[in-house]
Design a protein that fits this description.
globular, alpha/beta, about 300 residues, 7 helices, 8-stranded mixed β-sheet
Length: about 300
């Protein structure tokens, strides 16, 4: 219930990023039981709300000032506005961001971020695999501290690739929290179908083992993809543990957007590559130009 009804968005807006805090000054004293997770580095919560501490692992997490991925930011921002506390753990280097953060901790719009240092890479070769390994190895070692300081009620594995499902359960187990697996892309199916990788490739087999573990061990699975029921069922996931939470937009950030009076404006958010199916948007636009838009 804490996840359903939240708002996520692929839009962009201007926000001010607070100064990074040195890691040594964080969590100097463990929180008391009635202040569950109320470490001094976390933002204050509304007194009238039962606070839920959510730890979200997303290697590629971003923010409006850093660039994509935005989903984790917008979900977390809405949870914080409801009075909850969120800690996002991400890597200092991601190929999808426009700007890379410094290692350490900072607060962005009330959301606590912890950036783990990882090496830069180009492409999808050994360098990216090494980047993933460094991130997961550090997170594994950091798990006891995260569980003790932040005391999450839910630990979410949300790093596009599925291998973080082997680290997030360690945090969940130590904190006695619920484990949630979030599906971004269908790995290993996406690399097989879109990149032509062999199902027998060692990396693909690693991804398959991780996906199997997620479907087996997660208390809940959340997918932004609306048509994954059959695929996830084939991996052994029952429909009662699967919830669809698609991407959306923050309408307040589009108010005042420039447009001529009387114009209908359609905005499509998609990556310009094979997986983004940009051609479908072009054909839809051609079709729309020949007939009036239908208004609800």
């Amino acid at each position: 219930a804490w996840l359903r009804g939240s708002v996520c968005c692929a839009g962009r807006c201007r926000r001010t990023i607070g100064p990074a805090k040195p890691r040594e000054s964080i969590g100097t004293a463990p929180p008391s039981h009635d202040e569950r997770g109320a470490a001094p580095w976390m933002p204050p919560a509304a007194a009238s709300v039962v606070r839920v501490n959510t730890l979200l692992v997303n290697h590629y997490a971003g923010s409006p000032a850093l660039g994509v991925e935005y989903r984790s930011y917008y979900l977390a921002r809405e949870w914080v506005r409801l009075g909850h506390r969120v800690l996002i753990v991400g890597a200092t280097f991601s190929h999808v961001r426009t700007r890379q953060p410094a290692a350490g901790d900072e607060t962005i719009d009330g959301i606590a971020y912890r950036w783990l240092p990882t090496p830069a890479y180009q492409g999808n070769g050994v360098g990216r695999v090494w980047n993933i390994w460094r991130f997961l190895a550090q997170l594994w070692r950091l798990a006891p501290r995260l569980a003790a300081e932040f005391r999450p009620v839910a630990a979410i594995a949300s790093s596009t690739y599925p291998m973080d499902i082997w680290v997030a359960p360690r945090i969940a187990r130590l904190a006695r929290a619920k484990l949630v697996y979030e599906v971004h892309d269908l790995w290993p199916l996406s690399p097989i179908e879109l990149s032509g990788m062999s199902p027998r490739h060692p990396f693909i087999r690693l991804c398959q083992a991780a996906e199997d573990a997620a479907c087996r061990d997660a208390d809940a699975v959340v997918s932004m993809l609306p048509k994954v029921h059959d695929h996830m069922a084939a991996q052994g996931l029952g429909s009662r543990r699967l919830t669809i939470v698609p991407n959306a937009i923050e309408t307040d950030e589009w108010n005042g957007a420039a447009a001529s009076p009387g114009d209908d404006v359609a905005v499509a958010g998609a990556s310009h590559h094979r997986a983004g199916t940009s051609l479908h948007w072009v054909r839809a636009a051609e079709h729309a130009c020949c007939r009036p838009f239908a208004h609800p």
